[in-house]
Amino acid sequence: MRVLIIGGGGREHALAWSLRREDPDGQLYCAPGNPGTAILATNLDIAATELDRITDAGDAYGIDLVIVGPEVPLAMGLADRLREEGRLVVGPGAAGAQIEASKAFAKDLMVRAGVPTASSRTFTDPKKAVFHISGHSEPVVVKASGLAAGKGVYVCTTRAEAAAAVTEMLGQRKFGEAGREVIIEEFMEGEEVSILALTDGTDVELLPAAQDHKRLGEGDTGPNTGGMGAYSPVSIATPALLERTRREILLPTLRQLALEGIPYRGVLYAGLMVAPDGRPRVVEFNCRLGDPETQVVLPLVRGGLLRCFEAIARGEQPTPLDVAPGAAVTTVLAAKGYPDSPEKGAAIHIPDGLPEGVTVFHAGTRRDADGVLRVAGGRVLNVTGMAPTFAEAQALSRKTADAIRYEGKVFRQDIGWREAARRDRGEG
Questions:
Q1: Whole-angstrom Cα distance, residue 385 to residue 381?
Q2: CATH number of 191-424
Q3: Among the four 162, 272, 340, 380, which has the fewest Cβ within 10 Å?
Q4: Domains of the chain: which residue ranges?
Q5: Starting at the edge strand that comes first in sequence, how are the strands of the sheet with 191-199 ordered?
Q6: Do 69 and 5 form a contact (C-beta atoms < 8 A)?
Q7: Is the pTM of this model over 0.85?
Q8: C-alpha 68 chain-centroid distance
Q9: Residue 151, pLDDT above cutoff 80
Q10: Highest CATH level, class, for 2-95
Q11: Does domain 125-180 have CATH number 3.30.1490.20?
């Protein structure tokens, strides 16, 4: 098949790596791609948001299947445009992409579908929002309703902090249009788990469960980021929990979308909070593969990914995936100043002869005119270690992350710390 991957980050490099592993002779393109995808595919100098040029590229290169990585082009209607031209696409149309592009839409949808989530209220008026907060229990969660690159969520210890967050979003427009509407919701106790489902709009095929680390600092401290690392599988994501998620969250959501005339083909990502009693509730939905979850999950899928993508793009029942035993851990290497003001331009040195089981996925990198690899974004590289055991995978990822060099490198050495603690207690 001729496959076009839309996007240029670590998720798209992982997609290209996985598809190339399954189909060594396939025709693979990335728009725009990055220095990592350039080794595996033909990069096209087209931004993920240039819908007209992407549509033209589909014709020019005879593309059979388009896999859309980022959420923004989906919210802009890229999948709709491509389907109108008869192209097979993995990704929902603009109406379905609202499940991520508008947290207010997602919350209302969950209420109508009976899907468990935190109680919440939506506001556009800062005075009304602050008044609501004055009577809210603590902690308080404040979220920008729109797309804020994973940074528009504040978990506020006090009502005063929550009021300040509302003022930043609605008053000072810190997140621009993404923050013109805010969600104020109850704080949910528990542990987060990411469930990624491939769907034709009716049924689902689950990828291995993962846990993302959103906070910048070790021990989950500091500001929220787009994600500092992830691991898979997650021991609390038992077969019983996954089945409950399928039955009580994923399928009811898809049924409600269908009832409202919104067909959904692609990836439905459910970010869950698993309460101490094992009850899952939805923190958020995404309309695409997670980042960095994709970089840790796809190396565990040793076959069937391309076949499943093609099936759901055709509106057919998703086909089974062949998931390898073992574990994977991904450590994100970020730029100095990330997430607010990442510094770009530093030269990157990746050691030759990476250890067996390690793959380095490029995210925010570029090559200069002299061929030197340089920092070009906030999250720079994703170091994935895969091994028979979690401890081995964690050590591989951490050791390789430490060996890569560039000025101002920031990374967490404790990715998977909750899982490590469980296993130390004999619970994993």
A1: 13
A2: 3.30.470.20
A3: 340
A4: 2-95, 125-180, 191-424
A5: 204-206, 191-199, 266-274, 280-286
A6: yes
A7: yes
A8: 12
A9: no
A10: alpha beta
A11: yes
Q: Tell me the C-alpha distance between 71 and 91, whole Å.
A: 9
**Structure-token pair, residue 63:** 């593309």
* Sequence-ordered list of residues with C-beta below 8 angstroms from that of 94, at least 6 positions apart, any chain: 74, 75, 76, 77, 79, 80
Residue 357, CA distances (Å) to 3, 322, 334, 428 in order: 26, 18, 22, 22
Question: Residues 6 or more apart from 425 whose CB is under 8 A from it?
Answer: none
Q: Which amino acid is at 96?
A: G
Task: Inform me whether the pLDDT recorded for 42 exceeds 90.
Answer: yes
Taking the C-alpha atoms of residue 346 and residue 391, their distance in angstroms, rounded to an integer, is 31
Tens of pLDDT, residue by residue over 247-278, are 999 999 999 999 999 999 999 999 999 999 99
Query: Token digits for 18?
Result: 């996985």
The token pair at 236 is 């609390």
pLDDT digits (tens, 9 = 90+) for 70-86: 999 999 999 999 999 99
The β-bridge partners of 193 are: 272
